[in-house]
Design brief:
Structural class: mainly alpha
Helix content: 55-70%
Number of strands: 0
CATH superfamily of one domain: Cytochrome c-like domain
CATH topology of one domain: Cytochrome Bc1 Complex, Chain D, domain 2
CATH architecture of one domain: Orthogonal Bundle
């Protein structure tokens, strides 16, 4: 009887650990915010930033991946195996900050999935205006008043 109880207790603990529910916000704050700030940077912050703000990053992710599942999968893949070929940020950001280093030794895929879902749902916040939005709007309005996105800068 004791052996059965111990077995059931161990199996229950293993299942509980395997199905751990990660807090994406907390993980983002712990693992990502040391590089990616979560606010619009002040002039002083801009001077010391080591990576683009998460608002801009997610603006570009959503520009390239129209649904949450694809965006989450991209984030997981990119953070684990970054490359210039996969990058969605503007070339100027990559020149300034360099390519993101792999986070394989810093975050698990399960943690990263929770982070990716959290940042997809929360960034950029409503009302956020990326500098490229104004450039794109000007380009589109001068293009026969057509609202189709131009592919000339891709």
């Amino acid at each position: 009887m004791k052996k059965t109880f111990v077995c059931v207790a161990l199996m229950s603990s293993a299942l509980l650990f395997a199905s751990q529910n990660y807090d994406g916000k907390k993980l983002f704050e712990e693992k990502c915010m040391s590089c990616h700030i979560a606010t619009i940077p002040t002039i002083k912050q801009k001077r010391s930033m080591v990576a683009p703000p998460i608002m801009g990053v997610m603006f570009h992710v959503k520009e390239n991946y129209s649904n949450k599942e694809d965006a989450v999968n991209f984030i997981i893949d990119y953070v684990m195996n970054p490359s210039l070929k996969k990058a969605v940020c503007m070339p100027g950001s990559i020149r300034r900050f360099g390519l993101m280093p792999s986070m394989k030794d810093t975050v698990t895929k399960d943690e990263l999935k929770a982070i990716a879902k959290y940042i997809y749902d929360n960034y950029p916040p409503k009302g956020f205006m990326h500098p490229n939005m104004n450039k794109q709007a000007t380009k589109n309005s001068s293009n026969n008043n057509c609202n189709v996105k131009s592919n000339t800068n891709q």
